[in-house]
Amino acid sequence: MVLTSWRTFLAVCRLGSLSAAAAELGYTQSAVSRQVAALEREVGQPLLERRPRGVALTRAGEAFAQRARAAVSAADRALRAAAEAGGAERVLAVGATPSAVAGLVPTALRELGATPWSLATGSSDELEELVATGGLDVAVVTDAPPGRSDDDRLVRHALGADPMCVVVPTGHPAAGRDEADLGVFAAETWVEDDDGSAALLRAAAARAGFEPRIDLAAADLAGKVALVAAGHAVALVPGLLVPALRRDVVAVGLTGGPMRRLYASVAAGPPDPPAAAVRLVEVLVDQYARNDLIRAR
Q1: Which pLDDT tens digit goes with each residue over 42-63?
Q2: Closest C-alpha among 156, 105, 159 to residue 291
Q3: What ranges make up the beta strands (E) of 122-210?
Q4: CB 161 within 8 A of CB 259
Q5: 194 by DSSP, 3-state: which?
Q6: Which DSSP symbol is given to 268?
Q7: Cβ atoms within 10 A of the Cβ of 74, count?
């Protein structure tokens, strides 16, 4: 469809990197670059500012991205409506933050049996906007900074708290500890991939009496953990991610450390969310209450 380049541009916006978008979409980086360049020519303005570490939106890019998300969401709704009108079974459209995609949401989707579903990844604000505008039926989001503002278009079902932990290389002195004070890592170099996680780290470090040296930036969680595994840094990650971590890193719990809360968001209606979305929320609430997938300590 003609919106292909729009979808590619929005993936670059969400991931902050041409290469990360290419990997997610299954394109080469040069193909992503060509699509963005063609879109910029069509718009008549530069949409992205290329930087040594990823890209940033220009003012024109921010304005375009906001409306492009609404347009792509409307296009997705049109496609789904046409398919359903033609007799196709309704596909449950699910969204989740990257850490929730690592285990919590896929496991919950297994409980839906034969119900067809699709799964999209994004930031909490992007996912909730898609839920509110009909692009998604349900999304698993967090209240990590800047937090979740009231939105009467949404109903948020609380899942529970997700304590953050520090990921270190296997040879790190703290690797053998189940739990430690954050101050143990005061002299470390940190890597971050997300402004919300960085804000949590800075606030927790301030309470522990130090300012973290966030000297490295990664495009996503996978890149963040890879830098830790190679011994370049340590990182703050959600406890929800721990079961899916690679074997060459170790998660250390934090005594009185920062945490975020998780929610399953659906549209307030009318119309009411589809039955499959209601069922998925019930599964997520139950699964989280049983603590099945939260970090093991």
Answers
A1: 999 999 998 877 888 999 999 9
A2: 159
A3: 138-142, 154-169, 179-180, 189-192
A4: yes
A5: coil
A6: -
A7: 14
3-state secondary structure of 143: coil
Q: Does pTM surpass 0.70?
A: yes
Give yes or no for a cis peptide into 271 (omega within 30° of 0): yes
Query: Given this model, what pLDDT does residue 296 score?
Result: 39
Q: Which residue has the higher pLDDT, 83 or 4?
A: 4
Residue 69 banded pLDDT, cuts 50, 70, 90: confident
* Span between the terminal Cα atoms of the chain, in Å: 48
Cis peptide before 163, with omega less than 30 degrees from 0? no
Q: Which two tokens stand for residue 114?
A: 């034969």
Nearest-CA neighbor of 204 among 223, 187, 183, 233? 183
* Model pLDDT, residue 291: 63
Dihedral, CA of residue 282, residue 103, residue 183 and residue 168, to nearest 10? 170
Report d(CA 9, CA 102) in Å as an integer.
Answer: 24
Give the DSSP letter of residue 242: G
Degrees to nearest 5, angle at CA 54 with 245 and 163: 35
From the list 168, 162, 169, the residue with the least C-alpha distance to 182 is 168
